[in-house]
Amino acid sequence: MVEEGPLPVTGDIDLAGLYTTLKRVFREAGLPTPDLDARLLVIETLGVSTAQLIANPRLPISEELARELNERARLRLSGQSIGRILGRRAFWSLDLRLNRDTLEPRPETETVVELALSLLPAVETPLLIADLGVGTGAILLAILSERLNAFGIGIDIAEGALREAERNAERHNLADRAVFAIGNFGAPLAPVFDMVVSNPPYVATATIADLDPVVRDHDPRLALDGGEDGLDCYRTVFSQASGMLKPGGTLIVEIDPAARDAVIAVAEARGLSVAAVADDLNGDARAVAFRFA
Ligand SMILES: C[S@@+](CC[C@H](N)C(=O)[O-])C[C@H]1O[C@@H](n2cnc3c(N)ncnc32)[C@H](O)[C@@H]1O
């Protein structure tokens, strides 16, 4: 039994009717991007293209599909993101599947990918990359998709995340250059990597309760909780760095812009020096590259 939702699901239902109603409902609910959310839900649920939304407004929609759209609209209104509802999210040029053990990849994390691509040596010989806390595989798979001589290992402590990362690698034909393994960040690794990347959990435990419910209630806690001051995982990763990087290798981490100086201090205390800082689209420092002097 589908719970009552915001859309008409019986009678003469057509594409334009559902789309227009959904946009209005999402606007009235104060969602930040109501029209985009409505379009994505309609396209994905009803299996139509954006062009059809304009060219074929009177397309009849079955009651079954209308009910499914209704249910998804209800989930959006209850605070789930479109990515969580659809179980997938675009990142870089990739369409990545999510599950309950994976963080939903964020656009700002693409800053890590950009910085990594700009700092990888311009060689044709194989490059080895490790992604610590790999989640859906977002950072590692984006880098591998751009550099055909790159090979990678993705580490995560959550088995469910590793399974999804593996499937995402297969979907994007990158599985022959990526392996995935369980571990505590870099603990299982040897010093063979040209580059190590990580977007570790970095929310201070006490502030998790104050996060936007879309994040707090749907992203896994393991992907968010960075300990008392939010820096625990950086301490671990920076302490492991010398056991992972080749001489001259680069370590890149995503940061909360507000924690920039604190993260750099933790790294410098372990012998690492800043090689580059990259800003996200808001102009905030989001990725920092380190090397050993
Ligand atoms: C912020 S998420 C980043 C996910 C992905 N790399 C991305 O950028 O979308 C952090 C990831 O670290 C993983 N993680 C948490 N603690 C870990 C640990 N001790 N060792 C390895 N991975 C860990 C979480 O399961 C989660 O997948």
From TrEMBL:
One of its GO terms (molecular function) is peptide chain release factor N(5)-glutamine methyltransferase activity. Substrate binds at N199, P200, P201, Y202. Residues 22-87 form the Release factor glutamine methyltransferase N-terminal domain. SUPFAM superfamilies: S-adenosyl-L-methionine-dependent methyltransferases (SSF53335). Its EC number is 2.1.1.297. The keyword S-adenosyl-L-methionine applies. InterPro entries: DNA_methylase_N6_adenine_CS (IPR002052), HemK-like (IPR004556), Methyltranfer_dom (IPR025714), N5-glutamine_MTase (IPR050320), PrmC_N (IPR040758), RF_methyltr_PrmC (IPR019874), SAM-dependent_MTases_sf (IPR029063). GO terms for biological process: methylation. Keywords: Methyltransferase, S-adenosyl-L-methionine, Transferase. Residues 131-254 form the Methyltransferase domain. It catalyses: L-glutaminyl-[peptide chain release factor] + S-adenosyl-L-methionine = N(5)-methyl-L-glutaminyl-[peptide chain release factor] + S-adenosyl-L-homocysteine + H(+). S-adenosyl-L-methionine binds at G133, V134, G135, T136, G137, D156, F185, N199. Methylates the class 1 translation termination release factors RF1/PrfA and RF2/PrfB on the glutamine residue of the universally conserved GGQ motif. Belongs to the protein N5-glutamine methyltransferase family. PrmC subfamily. HAMAP family: RF_methyltr_PrmC. This is Release factor glutamine methyltransferase. It comes from Acuticoccus mangrovi.
